[in-house]
Design goal:
The chain is globular. It is built from 11 helices and 15 strands. The chain has 320 residues and is α/β, with parallel strands linked by helices. 35% of the residues lie in helices and 29% in strands. It has a 6-stranded mixed sheet with strand order 6-7-8-3-9-10, sandwiched between helices. α3 (95-105) crosses α4 (110-123) and α4 crosses α5 (139-151). Adenosine-5'-triphosphate (ATP) binds next to β2 and α1.
Length: 320
C-alpha cells in the first residue's frame, strides 16, 4: 500500500479578504518527486509555509510524516529539510565547518557530525573543496553545499524552491541527478517548486499545476497531456520554406487541424485530431513550398503549461 508522507486536506489560507490557497487537497507518497508549478502568486510558497508549520492554515489540515504541521511544527521541522533558492552560509567558515555547525544545532555528536558531513560532502561532489571558505564557492557549489546542509539531519522530506537558479547547465544536470539518486536510494520525498519546466519534467514523478490558490490538475506529464489534449492528441511540427500565409491558411482549413502555433516564421506546430502526416506532406509540396522536416512530437510540460496559463493569444484557434 502507498504510504503518504504529505497529506493536505481542504487546506485554505486567507489573508484579509484574499484567498491565497483555496481548499487544496493533495497526497504525496514516500520517495516521490513532486513538482509544484504555477505562475507567480499561485500559492505555492504559502502552501510550503503551511506544510512546514511556519504559517497556520485558515482551515483544512496539513500532515507531514504523520504529524499535523499546525499542532506539531517541531516534529515536522525535524523531518523536513528546506532548500531555498539562495542559502545563507557563514562565508568565513569552510564548507565542512558550515555543515558541522548545522549538525551541532541539530544536537549531533561531534564524531557523528564529522562522519556524516564528510560523507555528504563526498556525495554532493565537494570533497576537494570541503576545506575552502563557503564565501569562495560558486553558485552551483553553494547549492550543493545547501543540499548537504539540508541532508545532515537525515530528513524524510526535502523541499526545494527554485534550487537551480543561476547554476550553469552542467551544474544543473548534476544537481538534478543528485536529487533523483537521493529520492531513489534513500526514499526521500522531494517537493520541487520551480518555473523551469524542462527540469521539472526531467525529474518529477508527478506535477501539480497551481493557479489562483487552486490545484488545477495533478498527475504525471503523460496523464496531464492525455486529459488536456484528449481531443487533439497528435502534435506535428513542420519546418517549411518559405512558409507563406497562404499555406498557413490552407493548413488551418484542414478539418483535422485544431490549432497552429508558430514556433518561428518557418516552424509551425500543429495540434491535430488524427495523424495526418501524409496529407500534410502532399499539401505542402503541391503548394510549391519546401518541406524541410515533419516531426511527430509528444506534448511536454511546455505545451501543458502554455495551454493552462500563458500566451493564449499566440495560438491561432479555430472558431467552432
Ligand atoms: N503575508 C501575506 N499577506 C498578504 N498576502 C500574502 C502574504 N503572503 C502571500 N500573500 C499573497 O498570496 C498570494 C500567493 O502567494 P505565494 O507567495 O504563495 O505565491 P507563489 O505561487 O509562491 O508565487 P511565486 O512563484 O512568486 O513564489 C499572492 O497573491 C501573495 O501576494
Amino acid at each position: 500500500m502507498d504510504q503518504h508522507v504529505i497529506e493536505l486536506e481542504k487546506l485554505t489560507k486567507v489573508y484579509g479578504d484574499y484567498t491565497a490557497v483555496d481548499q487544496l487537497s493533495l497526497m504525496i507518497r514516500r520517495g516521490e518527486i513532486f513538482g509544484l508549478l504555477g505562475p507567480n502568486g499561485a500559492g505555492k510558497s504559502t502552501t510550503i509555509l503551511m506544510m512546514m508549520g511556519l504559517t497556520e492554515p485558515t482551515s483544512g489540515t496539513v500532515r507531514v510524516c504523520g504529524y499535523d504541521s499546525t499542532r506539531n511544527p517541531l516534529s515536522v521541522k525535524q523531518r523536513v529539510g528546506y532548500l531555498p533558492d539562495d542559502v545563507g552560509f557563514y562565508e568565513e567558515l569552510s564548507g565542512l565547518e558550515n555543515l558541522l555547525y548545522t549538525a551541532r544545532l541539530n544536537k549531533m555528536s561531534r564524531e557523528m557530525a564529522v562522519e556524516r558531513a564528510t560523507a555528504l560532502l563526498r556525495r554532493v561532489g565537494l570533497e576537494e573543496a570541503s576545506g575552502k571558505k563557503a564565501g569562495t564557492y560558486s553558485r552551483g557549489m553553494r547549492q550543493r553545499l545547501g543540499l548537504a546542509d539540508v541532508l545532515i539531519k537525515q530528513p524524510e522530506v526535502i523541499i526545494l524552491d527554485e534550487p537551480t537558479l543561476g547554476i550553469d547547465p552542467e551544474g544543473v544536470r548534476e544537481f538534478l541527478q543528485l536529487i533523483q539518486e537521493l529520492s531513489r536510494d534513500e526514499q526521500i520525498t522531494v517537493l520541487l517548486s520551480s518555473h523551469h519546466l524542462h527540469q521539472v519534467q526531467q525529474i518529477c514523478d508527478r506535477v501539480g499545476l497551481f493557479v489562483g490558490g487552486r490545484l488545477l490538475a495533478v498527475g504525471t506529464v503523460s496523464q496531464l497531456s492525455q486529459q488536456l489534449f484528449a481531443e487533439e492528441p497528435f502534435l506535428i511540427e513542420l519546418h517549411v520554406q518559405p512558409g507563406s500565409t497562404a499555406l498557413y491558411k490552407k493548413l488551418l482549413e484542414l478539418p483535422e487541424v485544431s490549432r497552429i502555433e508558430r514556433v518561428d516564421a518557418n516552424r509551425w506546430r500543429l495540434s491535430c485530431t488524427a495523424n495526418i502526416a501524409p496529407a500534410l506532406t502532399q499539401l505542402i509540396v503541391s503548394s510549391g513550398e519546401q518541406l524541410h522536416s515533419l516531426t511527430e512530437k509528444q506534448y511536454g510540460l511546455d505545451e501543458i503549461y502554455h495551454r493552462y496559463f500563458a500566451g493564449r493569444d499566440s495560438d491561432v484557434r479555430k472558431m467552432a
